[in-house]
Amino acid sequence: IIRKHAQTFVALCATDVNFISNPPSMIAAGSVAAAVQGLHLGNTNSFLSNRCLTHFLSQVIRCDPDCLRSCQDQIESLLESSLRQAQHSVSERKNADDEADRKS
Predict the structure, then answer these.
(1) How far is residue 94 from each of residues 41, 80, 88, 100, 102, measured CA to CA in Å?
(2) Straight-line distance from the first to the last Cα atom of the chain, in angstroms, rounded to the nearest whole number
(3) pLDDT, tens digit, 9 for 90 and up, residues 63-92
(4) Spatial separation of the C-alpha atoms in residues 70 and 23, rounded to whole Å
(5) Number of neighbours of residue 88 by Cβ within 10 angstroms
(6) SS3 of 71, please?
């Protein structure tokens, strides 16, 4: 399930120009961290805690942990924005359908 969420985040990042300057490894690692965080899989004492996972992933991809955390935050913001936009679109479509039903 982590992989599916992370792949969704990577695909979402591929559609946003703000991620174009990030290396693929940063987007992948940030997406994995965001997936674990979003699924609430890590508690403060486990390897999957946000701090431990970010530190581990930053070592794997050889980057600063703060840069990785910043990328993760951007990914989470993009997801929130995308979900809000999708919810707004569904709401508008429902309102238009309701209006069409009333006119019928």
Answers:
(1) 35, 21, 10, 10, 12
(2) 44
(3) 999 999 999 999 999 999 999 998 888 877
(4) 13
(5) 10
(6) helix
